[in-house]
Amino acid sequence: MAQTLTPATPPTAGSHLVLTDISWEMYEKLLEVFAEHPSLRMTYYKGTLELMTPLPEHERYSWTLGRLVAALSEELGMEIVGLKSTTWRSQSKTAGIEADECFYIQNEALVRGKLKIDLTVDPPPDLAIEIDATHSSIDKMAVYAELKVPEVWRWQKGKLTVNILSDTGYVECGTSLAFGSFPVKELARFMQPDAQKGENARLREFREGVRQQLRS
């Protein structure tokens, strides 16, 4: 059974609540009210608000994929800005979401010195990551499309997909806008926990694999 979420009751892992007929003003108020619970994720789309707290499985995959993206950018000599689960919202689109991980890559220079980003004047993040460990009641890809996020990676059932925004929505692609011809789907090999190797050892193995590919 889903836990009822209130400011006085800290949400536990796996909590899930869906509210309908929520105004934009109420959504923004709830963002303020639950700001003290950073593990609580909110998704808002055209009057429907979903509140979820991620499971440990979800957080581990998110942490791992975020580290792989950061390591890949370093090995490729690219600058990035990582903003983790920042809330991205647009009142005109009545849409808001907190990605599991998100990055500025192509537009890194435009936000490099900023601690506050305003989507009315700044571009959206270049890459968002969604870990689909549990079922969402809101179409998160539709929310990302409203916010014009050009690229979303999804991890679901052991598979990494790269989704590129088109005029009609997201299209699954074999290559990444952010990382060009690099075969980013190979990151999936380093996503699953390994009882024989620690996470840092796996990351070093990944870095060496990237270097070998660059030398070939």
TrEMBL record:
Pfam assignment, any one: Uma2
Any one Gene Ontology molecular-function term assigned to this protein's record: endonuclease activity
Keyword Nuclease: yes
InterPro entries hit by this protein: Nuclease_put_TT1808, Restrct_endonuc-II-like, Uma2
Domain Putative restriction endonuclease span(s) in chain numbering: 24-175
SUPFAM superfamilies: Restriction endonuclease-like
Key word Hydrolase present: yes
UniProt keyword terms in alphabetical order: Endonuclease, Hydrolase, Nuclease
Protein name, per record: Uma2 family endonuclease
Organism: Symplocastrum torsivum CPER-KK1
Lineage, opening ranks: Bacteria, Bacillati, Cyanobacteriota, Cyanophyceae, Oscillatoriophycideae
